[in-house]
Specification:
It contains 17 helices and 12 strands. With 430 residues, it is an alpha/beta fold. The chain has 2 domains: 129 residues, P-loop containing nucleotide triphosphate hydrolases (Rossmann fold, 3-Layer(aba) Sandwich), CATH 3.40.50; 203 residues, no CATH class. β2, α3 and β3 form a beta-alpha-beta unit. α9 packs antiparallel against α10 and α11 crosses α12. The longest helix has 22 residues. It is globular. It starts with 5 loop residues before the first helix and ends with a helix. 40% of the residues are buried.
Length: 430
């Protein structure tokens, strides 16, 4: 499957100042597949080492971390020469071999001629001499590429100046509904393309959720596992209530915030959940005006959100006004995932301290601009909360996104992945 991150991998390959690369991401988001595809497409040879599959590979790094010695041993192991500029060396699951991680620093200092790309889970490398990229589950554009590449490319090329969004509006809404059910985990997407079976998708998603929880048990401290599982399973219930603010007391009555904060930090650092923190003063820089005690949590994949919550696909496909809170939660989670991919920065939300309970779902910092983003599922032409925010703070730019695009100033939620281009189109530089 085509992934947008391939473009950044090409930039890394061509960068004369490149460092060894670590590609991070949650389990099963496609890291290994992407690097292998990238290697086969842009290098004449690929040497692949999986440290989790073959624990004896760690022996290559036991004696010393001299790059030339390590390369020689890898060449002997694979029975072929490693050519610096035309061989991609993949260190898969490098998080299971700390010495292999530290070796990257020596490769950067002494042997920059080798092209080394690694995959890893949820760790802070602590190394200044590596390049780091994050692969997220597939967004809707990548989902569309996998199902109808011609439409996806036409949509991207035409942007917001043509009629593509209007001409294909109904088709795009239907495909976006599919995306809310299936999500963006590559194996699940491929299963959907092959079978179009909700039952098969549900089964595979359940297996992946089990894999996530096995990852908690495998890599987190033993004492933390019950808390990790409890927080993870609490996210859908708290997100689909009217007040989406996450409350530790709702995870388990006997647990308080101080009991769960370490587990929450682990999940956020690992990329399993995303955190949107509250601000009542959206000024530059946003990080300086945060209320850390109030926040919302979102899941890294909208399909896994649905399956964890045990929400039937029929709820998502329902075209009535039923299930308003659920559909609103899904819209927010989808937008949050896109924001993580687009900006890879902290995400915030705003609410007013008054009886009207005005709230703007997201506030982001784009350069020096502070941009409020209202994310709705139903047909809307304006929102009271966004209007109240605009009157109070007078932002230069604002965004209203929903499933409908019957107004020129509404960004269709199925095109939210192209937010940057929409902002340029909606707010041209003078």
């Amino acid at each position: 499957m085509r992934r947008v991150l391939t473009e950044k991998l090409i930039e890394w390959k061509e960068d004369v100042n490149k460092k060894p690369l670590i590609l991070k991401g949650v389990p099963m988001c496609g890291k290994t597949y992407l690097l292998k595809e990238f290697g086969s497409g842009f290098y004449s040879d690929v040497v692949y080492l999986n440290f989790e599959e073959d624990v004896h590979l760690a022996d290559l790094f036991m004696h010393n971390l001299h790059p030339d010695r390590i390369i020689k041993d890898i060449s002997l192991l694979h029975g072929k020469d490693i050519k610096p500029d035309s061989t991609l060396i993949i260190f898969d699951c490098i998080h299971t071999c700390p010495k292999a991680i530290y070796s990257l620093q020596y490769f950067n200092e002494h042997s920059t001629k080798y092209h080394i790309a690694s995959t890893g889970l949820f760790f802070d490398t602590g190394l200044p001499n590596v390049d780091v990229l994050t692969l997220y589950p597939m967004n809707f554009y990548e989902f569309l590429l996998a199902q109808n590449s011609l439409l996806a490319m036409h949509l991207k090329e035409s942007g917001f100046s043509g009629d593509a969004l209007h001409i294909f509006n109904n088709q795009l809404k239907d495909l976006y509904t599919d995306y809310q059910i299936v999500g963006g985990m590559p194996e699940v997407v491929q299963n959907w393309i092959n079978t179009k079976s909700i039952e098969s998708v549900d089964k595979l998603q359940s297996q992946q959720i089990t894999c996530f929880e096995s990852t908690f048990a495998k890599y987190a401290p033993t004492s933390m596992f019950p808390k990790l599982s409890a927080i993870w399973n609490s996210v859908p219930a708290q997100l689909t209530k009217e007040n989406r603010k996450f409350m530790f007391s709702k995870v388990k009555k006997s647990w308080r915030a101080k009991d769960l904060e370490d587990a929450l930090y682990w999940l956020i650092r690992a990329g399993f959940v995303y955190k949107a923190e509250h601000t009542d003063k959206p000024e530059f820089p946003l990080s300086g005006h945060v209320d850390h005690t109030h926040f919302k949590l979102y899941m890294c994949d909208i399909g896994l959100l649905r399956r964890t919550a045990r929400i039937p696909a029929s709820v998502i496909t329902d075209k009535t006004k039923n299930y308003k809170e659920i559909k609103g939660a899904f819209a927010e989670n989808s937008v949050c995932c896109d924001l993580k991919i687009i900006y890879e920065n902290d995400i915030f939300y705003w609410s007013a301290e008054n009886p009207a309970r005005a709230e703007v779902e997201f506030v982001i910092q784009d350069g020096s601009d502070i941009i409020p983003i209202a994310a709705k599922y139903g047909s809307v032409s304006r929102t009271r909360s966004l209007m109240q925010y605009s009157i109070k703070f007078k932002p230069k730019k604002s965004v209203l996104t929903s499933i409908e695009n019957d107004k020129p100033d509404i960004l269709p939620i199925y095109a939210f992945w192209n937010l940057k281009q929409w902002l340029e189109y909606q707010y041209p530089k003078t």
